[in-house]
Records
---
Amino acid sequence: FNLSTDQFGNKKVLKLNSDFADVKINGNYSVLELPKSLEKLMSNYLPSYFNGNYKNVAAQNFEYNILFKKNDAVLRLFAPELTIAPKTFIRGKYNSISNSFELAGVSSKISYQGIDFKNWNIVAVNSDNKLQLNSVCDKVQFSDSLSVGNLMLCTDTHDDSLNLSLEWDNKTKEKYNVKIDAFMHISSIKKMQFKVLPSQFFI
């Protein structure tokens, strides 16, 4: 593989080109400070859970993209229960100063612990008071005989609360679709309240 780093003023460019993935990170970032910075971001939406001291966290402002290639050998070593299809692509940007975050991903197939997610897409974006995530998948295969089709997951996170909507529709001759709405409120790290709201089941 080939790893290169350049710096232009306060902006850094990291490029990794290899047989298993191509990665590019461009901007002002600190890898060691990133987990704490993301906690600070989440404290805007779940302050009762992410309630640490974030006053001296280094600023982050960067864009990134990751293109997965043939990665079986690497994943077998570091994450043997995970497989990621070649041409899976993830991109996004993060600015801790303006509290802006974007993530988008697409994959023909991702498998985890024997469950296959086929034609998967994800988009996550935030505003001043809300973090939204939407993910769709053409088919989730649990086994040879059990699967769900046209899966869609949507979440809104704000004010120590998470609104969740999960639905699927196999679109078969026999009607089989489900829409589940739920709500979770977090009072502290140890106290959470979860409710299933009125939902629909057609089987």
---
Amino acid sequence: CVGCVWLCWVCLGLGGKVPTMMTLFSPFMIASQLDRDIISHSKEEPVFIGEQIKMITSVMTEFIKGTIDAGVDGIFLATQHLNQKLENNIRIKLEFDQLKSLIDNGLKENTFLIMHLHGMEPDFDLAMKLPRISGINWHDQKTRPNMSEARKIFPGALLGGLNSESWKNTPDMVAEKKKIVSSVKSVNAKGLIPTPHQTHPT
């Protein structure tokens, strides 16, 4: 695809000096942007909606393969539906199963994978059942688990410690430094990458 060709040129231009990651969204999240009433529609026509999401998963799988072949160092995979708000059967069938398929069939064994759980009440336990996750990012400043709780659940890299809202205006750097120090202490200085919990506002 054109995007993968462009990405290939970017990676070649950087010459491996700067790590590159491609941001992608879960198939169910993409489907929910195409159909704002997808939850109710999935209950009314489960077979049809399931087939459509599988088709999106198939396309996304090929796109991930293309980005990796183009030279990216990792994937930032985001979802806003792997949380306690969804009924368990929908969360597993339409979100978890498709994410697992995407990872199993699209990523290589050594692909660096960051999983972003967007929103409140993330289903951390279910997310931990996904394969090959190198690191995880969530709204740790707003919802559970906190950093120390997450460290007990997940042995990989934890990305967080900063509240993106506090950066909308000129941040109080002293306060932000305290947040980072607190986060580092909460995980015993192991495996923390200080980041906001979502896109940095501009």
---
Amino acid sequence: PAPKDAALGALPFIFFGMSITDGYFEAMSGLTTTGSTVMTGLDDADRGILLWRSLLQWFGGIGIILMAIVLLPFLRVGGMQLFRAESSDQFDKAMPRAAQMGSWIAGIYVGLTVTAAIAFRMLGMDVFDAVCHAMTAISTGGFSTHDQSFGYFTQPGLHWAATLTMLAGALPFALYIRMIRGSEEHTSELQSHHDLPDHPDI
């Protein structure tokens, strides 16, 4: 992210009493999904600032890939090559248009986040913790709403769910797109065969 993005992201932290340096560090850590933090007392912190930290990591998790896919090709910088480097993906282009690729990635990212939040809620988290940890797990960033981080939660199911969520977020998103498009093409092919008239001459 650009320094100005981190500067804007730091404003809520500064408004809540952090120094400019600490606020900038926290925002940059979130946007780059580094996971380092200078904040303490998270268990008693304002929920608004905790949600903001999670949102920064969530946007950071997808922002680099979307920028590479959607924006850089228009600047003739070669966004698809950056996408491959970011995701370690060896596939050819999964979509012909960069904007369409960006839409697919965003939809998959949101879908995985919602799925993770529902899983966390069903396994024992409250709604706020489930949403925040879903955003930071899918981005593989690691911010938490508690000083003990994910160790605050003792249910083994939550730890397994978080592990699977991070693995899902680390996989190449082009792989998801190929899986979905392959399934759609297979379904369309089956429907076309089903719609053919049952004549031996055809």
